[in-house]
Amino acid sequence: xxxxxxxxSNLGFTYMKTDYRYVSNYKDGAWDxxxxxxxxTVAINECAxxxxxxQTVFEGLKAYTTEDGRIVTFRPDLNGERxxxxxxxxxxxxxxxxxxxxxxxxxxxxxxxxxxxxxxxxTLYIRPYMFGSNPVIxxxxxxxxxxxxxxxxxxxYFKGGVKPLTIRVSDFDRAAPNGTGHIKAGxxxxxxxxxxxxxxxQGFDENMYLDPGTxxxxxxxxxxxxxxxxKDNTVVTPKSSSILPSxxxxxxxxxxxxxxxxxxxxxxxxLEEVKDxxxxxxxxxxxxxxxxxxxxxxxxxxxxxxxxxxxxxxxQKLYDTLTGIQMGRLEAPEGWIQVIE
Length: 341
Ligand SMILES: *Cc1c(COP(=O)(O)O)cnc(C)c1O
Prior knowledge:
This protein is 21% helix and 26% strand. It has helices at residues 49-53, 76-89, 97-110, 186-190, 193-201, 247-258, 313-326; strands spanning 21-27, 30-31, 35-37, 56-58, 61-65, 71-74, 123-132, 145-154, 165-169, 206-208, 225-229, 235-238, 264-267, 279-284, 288-297, 300-303, 337-339.
């Protein structure tokens, strides 16, 4: 298969149309068999549930080329499982994890010419999503849905080197204690847009959201979970029912324990104790880990000892080990690497 003529290492995180996408429709209580199509547009009624009441959930994962030239994805079963849970919470029909994995594999295979080569740092981003497609005007779940998967090649996250982030403690909240923070729903992102635009306009890269109930505990940012490292090298990650369960964070915790022999704690993290940590990072599919150099709490600056020039030593080890596993340079735990071709 011949690769497309793309300047892989200069791609950003933007949408580029690829050749094929997967579509399956839900009607009369059942999903159809699904198909690969070439049309990149969606035609739905003006009153579709997704347009009126934001009934939509999504996932994000990557396909990439390993050192030995295979095209693979990383733990798509967990994305499938998470999408099942997201759908249930928004009263949408479940598109099974098994079919989800098949749809992801088929879509990547069809767009193999867009999977960046090993060493470019670029990847093929995969976006599965689902939305209510029939007219809904009284507030209730839609009766018909569409599940789609498209792909788009994206560039290396740390183009021009790693730059630790400066984040602020946000006065806006991301997720209510018994709300929808733990599912991957578009609505969580819509309501975060004002906070992130405001943060950027004030010179911050991201928002650190606190628990809205007490505003004393660290939750996460708009799209990534926190990992902290204590001065004696214990990896600490916040525990809360309103945090989105990041697959990257869960994988990094496993790597910390089983590959690096580090102690791991998943527990409530007080804003008050953040100043005592040695390292801080944000975990998600896009970057694996982005180091945080500085946290600003209403004018009070916390500069992490790892500083503003590089990743802290433990963060770096976690990053190197997980990306080593993903790229096939290190042996992966059973079931983590899904080979596509
Ligand atoms: C997607 C997402 C993450 C990261 O999850 P990964 O599975 O690691 O990509 C973290 N926080 C939020 C709010 C998210 O939507």
